[in-house]
Amino acid sequence: MTSTRVLLVLLIVSIVARAQNNPVFKKFEYKHSFRAPNLAQRDGSIPFWIVSGDAIASGEQLRLAPSMRSRKGIAWNKRAFVESENFQVDISLKIGGQGRVGADGLGIWYTSQLGALGPVFGANDFWTGMGLFLDSFDNDGQKNNPQVSLMLNDGTRSYDHHTDGSQQILSSCQRDFRNKPYPVRLRIEYMKNVLTVHVDDGMQPTPRYELCMRAENIFLPRNGYFGVSAATGGLADDHDILDFSVFSLFHEQQKPVAAAEQIPQQEKQKYDEEFERQMKEYEQERAKFKEQHPDKVKEDDEYDPNKYYEDATARELRLIYESQNAIHQVMQNMDQRLAQIQQAQISGGGAAVPQTGGAAPAAVAGGASFQQHEKNEVITSLRDLTQSVRDMKQYVNEIFTKTYNIDQKIQQGGAGGGVDSSMHQKVDSLLNELRTVRATQVQTSGPGASSNCPNVSCVSSTIFMLIILVQSVIIIAVVFVRSKQDKAKFY
Ligand code: MAN
Ligand code: CA
Ligand code: CA
């Protein structure tokens, strides 16, 4: 009894050790696969696959044969499977129709040549490689269908449809795969010359695989082609594939090596240097071209994809920039209007000034003269406005300083963190804009300007200051977020 226990423990230990020595690496191979949604392209083609006969591919499924009599369709992978000797294929399919009995079935293939339309579940006979059949119809009346059966062929044998290949198939299992509430899943695994097929019953959304067959000493063609096919006869079913996912399998000794690892260190360095050199050359050429063809560069910029995309920070800065522009516009307008007032006053009281709102005149019309109280009102409001302009100047200066700081931060971040150059440009133009605003103010309310005759705005200074205040807060927030992001990028 004790020795049996010891043997059992030893057996388990050896199994665990073997499993640890032979880990399997698995890689999805998209060039050999298709899956819903977006299974097919708009024109009905499947990337890397040939679809022919009555097969129709859509986004949701590949219908190999419809539930109509005597139809056949195939789809074959145009690329040979060269990635590994071993593979796993996970297939999700639906077979069904109105009848209590359906026909004829679906084939899953791995062959040395591309397949063609033919009599074996829609595909050609005398194939070389593996054919796994979901045979719905009991042609030999043995009451053993629907069944899943495996037949290997070296290109010399013809499948006997009338006997369901009963004398030819290597292995099979009886499974009812028709009209199931969920897609039926199959898992085919070929590893170290052992072929296993697991089948799910399609009764629940997540697969519940059961072993259908396991065959040892199987030698499948190297660099073969995956294919699928289906056919109907006197009876018919829809035969749909929703997912055909191929994975290459590797054991420890065959671990796939990343392309970068395959290159010796010295060579890698050489490539890197060459890349750097070419990049520099390219940048130089680009700068030269820009210099020589500034008009062309503009044209090219229209195709710059960055133009069409804008991240949150860039958007915020753009909004700040736009509102600064608007402020500038308003200031220019008020400048013009005050010039008009000034003109009216200088021309000696020959103008009547209709009051709008109370503070500033809106238009100058010829005819009547200023009354004293109107003159006093205008002078008082102009004094107020002079004060407002001074305040504005101070605020604009503050914004200028803060924007300048953002620019500095971005420039620093750009050196290490690759900050978006369009944002940088925007901040630059914002700075320029502010410089213009500042310059305008210096001209209009600087030491040279007369305080009795100031060029100031009709805009409410409180609203203006509020706008400026809000913008300053946004700018500070942007600087804070940006610096945080840069830190995150760096670490
Ligand atoms: C007819 C023939 C057969 C086919 C069955 C079921 O009997 O076309 O070849 O298998 O229908 O479709
Ligand atoms: Ca059959
Ligand atoms: Ca049968």
Can you describe this structure?
- Helix 3 (265-292) packs across helix 4 and helix 6 packs antiparallel against helix 7 (421-445).
- The protein is elongated, with a radius of gyration of 40 Å.
- A hairpin with an 8-residue loop joins strand 14 and strand 15 (209-215).
- The protein starts with a helix and ends with a helix.
- Among the domains are: 21-250, Jelly Rolls, CATH 2.60.120; 397-490, no CATH class.
- It has helices spanning 2-21, 259-262, 265-292, 294-301, 312-346, 372-417, 421-445, 461-490, and strands spanning 24-28, 34-35, 49-53, 56-57, 62-65, 72-77, 86-96, 105-111, 117-120, 128-135, 147-154, 171-174, 184-191, 194-200, 209-215, 225-231, 238-251, 351-352, 365-366.
- It has 491 residues and is of the alpha+beta class.
- Residues 103-104, 137, 139, 232-235 line the site of alpha-D-mannopyranose (MAN).
- Alpha-D-mannopyranose binds next to loops.
Describe the structure concisely for a colleague.
With 491 residues, the chain is an alpha+beta fold.
Helix content: 25-40%
At the third CATH level, what is the topology name of one domain?
Jelly Rolls
Structural category: alpha+beta
Largest sheet: 9 strands, antiparallel
Radius of gyration equals 40 Å
Name of the CATH architecture of one domain: Sandwich
CATH class of one domain: Mainly Beta
- How big a fraction of the residues is strand? 15-25%
Coarse shape: elongated
* Count of DSSP-assigned helices: 8
| Low confidence ranges | 6-21, 298-310, 349-368, 414-420, 440-459, 486-491
Report how far the terminal alpha carbons are from each other. 61 Å
How many DSSP-defined strands? 19
Bound molecules: alpha-D-mannopyranose, calcium ion
H/E order of the elements?
HEEEEEEEEEEEEEEEEEHHHHEEHHH
How much is the average pLDDT? Answer: 75
